[in-house]
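Subject: Sanity check before I submit

Could someone independently write out the structure tokens for this chain? I want to compare against mine line by line before I put it in a report. The sequence has 314 residues.
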Amino acid sequence: MEENHYPHRISKELVQLMPVEAFEGEVIVVDRPEQVAEAVNYLRTQRVLGVDTEARPSFQRGIHYPTALVQIASHERCYLFRLTHIGMPQELADLFADPGICKVGLAFRDDINGLRRRRNFTPANCVDVQAMVMKYGIMDLGLQKVFAICFGKKISKTQQLTNWENTQLTPEQARYASTDAWATLRIYEDLIAHEPLAPKEVESLKREEKERMIEHQLEIQDQKLREKGIEPPPHMTPEERAAHQADRKREARKRKRQRVAARKRQNIAAQNAAAKAAVPKTATSKAAPKKTGPKKTVPRKQRKKQDNPNKQIQ
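---
Independent answer below. Compare away.
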């Protein structure tokens, strides 16, 4: 294996200066049911496949469109399955459920869930590149940036927000879609050819990334305050922030214990009330009230007569 040389992050400005890379292999659009079998038969001859999906973009909150296209690529050929025309064929579902063929994608769970909404299947041997890159010290998760980190080139994203439900795909759309699927395949093969970082290094990078994100959020908050003419307060150091977070976690655990104890008391009270209500009521005679007051004393001789009234006193 090669030594790990990946930079942790890359800026948008640097990506824009890189040369453009695109898929140069054969692109085949599958928009008729009779084309499916031949396409799947070819894909089954490959050991690893790159996968991506596209859907019609939504510009309104809460509105989502079904997966319109799934593109599956080898190094030489990419098939574009137009699900708006052919649905989700059983042959394609069986391909994703085949454990003998590795399917590679980025943010793959979302893609798989979109395909399963069209036809349910149990995915097997589906690898998410986004879950792999952190093990190699790459903190950027977008396809364009990960590709730039691995190969020093950029892939175009200009067609990402076009309408993928059009009657005909444009050549630009077809090239963009095939490039995305092929790019995930190349990234996967490049990653497995390099040594991953030690787990301690990965955890250290994750902590640094978390601190960086917090600092970025604080900078945004400070900028908003300055725009309103308010001087932002001084921020805590990382050590103070860690101690503050530990205190908050302890308080949260304490509140949780209190809630659990209160819930137990409520359950016990409810059980007791239910048991009391279940006991049947029986008719009982009214007992005479006990007399209260000073106790009357009886002489000794009179007590003997009361004990044995037939006995004569000698």
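---
OP: Matches mine. For the report I'm noting this point. The first helix runs from residue 12 to 16.
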